[in-house]
Design goal:
The complex is a heterodimer of chains A (326) and B (114). Chain A is α/β, with parallel strands linked by helices and 326 residues long. Chain A is built from ten helices and twelve strands. In chain A, helix 6 runs parallel beside helix 7 and helix 8 runs antiparallel to helix 9. The two termini of chain A are 39 Å apart. In chain B, a hairpin with a 2-residue loop joins strand 1 and strand 2. The chains are: A alpha/beta (326), B alpha/beta (114). At the A-B interface, helix 8, helix 9 and helix 10 of A face helix 3 and helix 4 of B.
Chain lengths: 326, 114
């Protein structure tokens, strides 16, 4: 296809745009050819310099890259949605793991991560937006690495592109990279749990729970999940996830709370509310160390569910969990 | 909830091996019951401790916390420690929380030599 020329790409001088630590860049592209024009030089530079490179994009675009890269695709690690899942909250720990694995190499690491792909729901895009802002905080004191986040300007709403300008200090448009005028650094960006969730669109079944009712909550979730035709594994995952949330409420947030369950847009939604406050912006996104006995609740929820939305304010916590219906 | 949902803990001594048989649900309510059993004299004096998880139909992060505590306690006491694999739900919990490699797993309580 002529677009991919690793040696030539490796000699392009982009050092002027490279940050000492985390370089977070949005690539605004149009169509397959725009995607390749933006990502291939980035991959070529990595391969030319012997830098590890990991690609986590939608399935179609991953296939496209693999075809064009040919034999060189062997040197690129592809992480599919089947491995990382749909939940954007799993992406920060996945990058963190990659960085730890290569920490001893002494070479900068590169990643290409497309989270706001075509076909994402509004709720997913909202969490992607929050995730992209949180990346800057998660890696601000970390090792040197570059993350390129492709955004399809033909397919995505203007509001998604505007959000990308807020969350990425660097923007790549038409082959040139420039600083974003509207970038919000971690000290000025809104916290990941600020704001509120849209009101449920569906008939809500409400349960009140306290310490003596955890088994009853698990039973109620299991029944609703079975009625909604979730298979046994998805049912078990949802039961464990909601159990973790209500356990958090009982242990750390006043001892009681409410659980709402409803169906909306081919999803089973469960929302746990309590009077607590989740303070750590990276809660549930940092793997708990082995020698730490507790603190695994939100980590589990993020890895068990397709999408998790956390909102926390002075009036309490609301955690909404989405399960896709078959 | 009905009594059969609660956790039952049964400690059996077979020479130098103590087998802790857990059944029912190991959640926030069950965790303290399990934690107390770890302090029993039978357990403290054994050379080998095996947690038999086959009878558990539910474990959550509260339960995992005590399983990890049991592992640490055995190490402090210089004991051998292992768990049985448990149900798919237990295995999924251990795998997501990345503790599988940290715990020795045996197919059955009798497998670990005393």
């Amino acid at each position: 296809m002529g677009l991919y020329q690793p040696e030539q790409a490796a000699h392009r001088d982009r050092t002027a745009n490279v940050d000492a630590g985390f370089h977070h860049e949005a690539l605004l592209y149009s169509g397959d050819s725009g995607f390749l024009r933006g990502t291939l030089p980035f991959i070529g530079e990595a391969l030319g310099a012997g830098e590890p490179v990991l690609v986590a994009v939608g399935e179609a675009r991953a296939k496209l890259l693999q075809e064009v890269l040919g034999d060189d695709a062997e040197h690129v690690r592809f992480l599919g949605v089947d491995q990382i899942g749909r939940n954007p909250a799993r992406v920060i720990p996945a990058w963190g793991k990659l960085l730890r694995e290569h920490a001893t190499d002494g070479r900068p690491v590169r990643g290409i991560g497309e989270s706001a792909w075509l076909g994402r729901s509004e709720a997913e895009l909202e969490e992607c937006r929050r995730h992209e802002l949180l990346l800057n905080l998660a890696f601000e004191d970390g090792p040197q690495w570059r993350l390129l986040c492709p955004y399809d300007i033909d397919a995505l709403e203007d509001s998604v592109i505007e959000s990308a300008q807020l969350s990425h200090p660097w923007m790549a448009v038409d082959g040139t990279t420039h600083p974003s005028d509207s970038y919000l650094d971690p000290s000025s960006a809104p916290g990941p749990f600020e704001g509120s969730l849209p009101a449920p669109r569906g008939e809500v079944e409400r349960h009140r729970f306290a310490a003596d009712g955890l088994g009853a909550v698990r039973g109620a979730i299991s029944v609703r999940a079975a009625e909604a035709h979730l298979d046994a594994e998805a049912n078990g995952d949802l039961v464990l996830a909601i159990n973790e949330l209500v356990t958090n409420s009982v242990q750390h947030a006043g001892g009681h709370g409410t659980l709402d369950i409803w169906i909306e847009d081919r999803e089973l939604l469960c929302e746990v509310r309590d009077r607590g406050r989740i303070v750590d912006p990276l809660a549930g996104r940092v793997p708990p160390p082995l020698d730490q006995p507790g603190g695994r609740g939100l980590w589990l929820v993020n890895h068990l569910c397709d999408l998790v939305q956390i909102r926390s304010s002075e009036s309490g916590n609301a955690v909404r969990v989405h399960a896709h219906l078959p | 909830m009905a009594a059969q949902d609660h956790l039952r803990v049964d400690v059996q001594r077979d020479q130098e091996r103590a087998v802790v048989q857990l059944s029912g649900e190991l959640d926030l309510a069950g965790a303290p019951i399990f934690e107390r059993a770890l302090e029993s004299d039978e357990l403290a004096a054994a050379e080998t401790v095996v947690l038999d998880l086959e009878g558990l139909n539910f474990v959550d992060s509260s339960g995992l916390r005590v399983i990890l505590m049991a592992n640490d306690r055995a190490r402090e006491r210089g004991q051998q420690f292992a768990i049985t694999p448990g149900s798919p739900q237990v295995q999924r919990l251990l795998s997501i929380t990345n503790v599988t490699d940290h715990l020795r797993v045996v197919a059955s309580p009798g497998e670990l030599p005393t």
